[in-house]
Amino acid sequence: MNELTRRLRSLPAVDAVALAGLAMMIVGVAVTVEALIEAARSTPSASLLAWYDRLALGLWEFRIEHTVWFTAGLLVLWWALSHGARLEGWSDYAGRLAGGLAIGYTLVGAAMVLASTVVALRGGIGSGVAEVSFSTRERVLVWLLQLATGLGAGVVWALIAARIPDEKSTSAFREQQHEEEDEEPPPTPRVEGQVMEPLAPPPRPAPSAAPPPTARPVAPAAAEPQPPRERTPVEQADLIFQERLAYSPRRDEARQLVDLIAQAHRAGRQDEARSLVERLSRL
User: Fold this and answer.
1) Distances (CA, A) of 19 to 14, 26, 39, 96
2) Are strands 195-198 and 215-218 parallel, antiparallel or unpaired?
3) CA 97 vs CA 15, 78, 90, 164, 265: distances in Å
4) pTM greater than the 0.85 cutoff
5) pLDDT digits over 101-159, tens only?
6) Quick check: 134 and 121 in contact, CB under 8 A?
7) Cα–Cα–Cα angle for 242, 245, 246, nearest 5°?
């Protein structure tokens, strides 16, 4: 339990947001399934209907607000993956799961619109003793509600499913951030040339032997060696990772520390970044 708590505390903020979104999605699926079952049972005579009539009745009675948990979790996970969440190498699987569930919910929204249209046109469900009928006003209002909510939510789910980032896009996002941090300013050009300095006149002799003052060229002074530029914490972390940890058994933990160092460096927390570099060097 302590190890789990420590790992959760060491997660980057964007990974924690991704985990929260994934949990909200799972809760949302359970709530949606329960709502579909209760919608089919809401009519007392529903048990006498055929299975396809019970399904149509459930879609007619189902309300799209029961999918709020799932939709909110899907949006949270989408945002986190778009901002580089790795989930310790599971981001690709999380994206596929979210995309598949979003497509499934889109199909549920389409089925709800189709079933509601059929029920509104027929005026009821079933026949004989088990027939469930609705008034004209109820049919029109419920059909409009199901049409608007089903199409609206279906479009949202389809858009998110099409835009869920994969592992390649999140890697490109992180590489672009590293490239922006590693850009160096161009070196300042140095001007070299011959320097002429006048010589101090010698002591003045007799008037007959006084030579005129002269100037001679002075060899250019040797350029002072430039001190080596100190590497940034991000550069030090990348160097340590590439030299010692890229193929080690602790590669994932090292990669996570490299991401934390980059985040601290971007936020201006240099002391924290250097401390994480020392921790990375001890792996």
Assistant:
1) 9, 11, 30, 15
2) antiparallel
3) 16, 11, 11, 10, 32
4) no
5) 999 999 999 999 999 998 888 887 877 666 777 888 988 999 999 999 999 999 999 99
6) no
7) 55
